Amino acid sequence: RKEVEQDPGPFNVPEGATVAFNCTYSNSASQSFFWYRQDCRKEPKLLMSVYSSGNEDGRFTAQLNRASQYISLLIRDSKLSDSATYLCVVRSYGGATNKLIFGTGTLLAVQP
Amino acid sequence: DGGITQSPKYLFRKEGQNVTLSCEQNLNHDAMYWYRQDPGQGLRLIYYSQIVNDFQKGDIAEGYSVSREKKESFPLTVTSAQKNPTAFYLCASTSGDILAKNIQYFGAGTRLSVL
């Protein structure tokens, strides 16, 4: 089983739609959680950290469920510019400080 | 502007050749990392360094080597022992600040192909 698993998609949605991505992680001792965005042939960029209480940044809402070991990202009112791959990232416990485990990503395509 | 600079953007390797990918940061970050990304796969950690003159193997270190002689520089050498080097290579760094230390910032990457 992969340490971090995501539905690869693609998710094809019309502009204005609400779309949700889920991600599961296997290590119950994981400490920190993030969503990164990666545009085609570009580097990943931090979209938002995920906090236990859930957090929102504009149209983006991230939630963490420690009991079920999953993280979600909700995008409201999708824009064409939201088209990208969204990477779920988990900080592993032990071993290297700041060692991050990356999911394979979920591809979002927002259609006009 | 502060950031991470990777060069070259594209690199071609001949059979049996060693090639070196450059990564320089002016963010004054302590830790630096090298990842490899293949299509349909997540980023995989090759090597990382938390302090100058020290580095550790990641999950897929075989066929690679690194050095960390300066805080701002963490070059990666892809040796001839790496039989499948074609990939997108990403360098990242992290601040030592306790509030920000989990956030990794990435360079623009180097695409390596085999001739």
Summary keywords:
heterodimer; A: 112 residues; mainly beta; six-stranded mixed sheet; five-stranded antiparallel sheet; 0% helix; globular; B: 115 residues; seven-stranded mixed sheet; four-stranded antiparallel sheet
Count of DSSP-assigned helices of chain A: 0
Overall mean pLDDT score of chain A?
91
Query: What is the residue-averaged pLDDT of chain B?
Result: 91
The major β-sheet of chain A equals: 6 strands, mixed
* Spatial extent as radius of gyration of chain A: 14 Å
Distance between the termini of chain B: 35 Å
Largest sheet of chain B: 7 strands, mixed
pLDDT < 50 stretches of chain B: none
In quaternary terms, these chains amount to heterodimer
Number of strands of chain A: 11
Structure description:
- The complex is a heterodimer of chains A (112) and B (115).
- Chain A is built from no helices and eleven strands.
- With 112 residues, chain A is an all-beta fold.
- In chain A, the strands form two sheets. In chain A, strands 2, 4, 5, 9, 10 and 11 form a six-stranded mixed sheet that branches.
- Chain A is globular, with a radius of gyration of 14 Å.
- With 115 residues, chain B is mainly beta.
- Helix content of chain B is 0%, strand content 49%.
- Chain B is built from no helices and eleven strands.
- In chain B, strand 5 and strand 6 (54-57) form a beta hairpin.
- The N and C termini of chain B lie far apart (35 Å).
- The chains are: A mainly beta (112), B mainly beta (115).
Write the topology of this structure.
The complex is a heterodimer of chains A (112) and B (115).
Chain A: E1 4-6, E2 11-14, E3 19-25, E4 33-38, E5 44-50, E6 55-57, E7 60-65, E8 70-75, E9 84-91, E10 100-102, E11 106-111
Parallel strand pairs in A: 2-11
Antiparallel strand pairs in A: 1-3, 3-8, 4-5, 4-9, 6-7, 7-8, 9-10, 9-11
Chain B: E1 4-7, E2 10-13, E3 19-25, E4 31-37, E5 44-51, E6 54-57, E7 64-66, E8 76-78, E9 87-94, E10 104-106, E11 110-114
Parallel strand pairs in B: 2-11
Antiparallel strand pairs in B: 1-3, 3-8, 4-5, 4-9, 5-6, 7-8, 9-10, 9-11
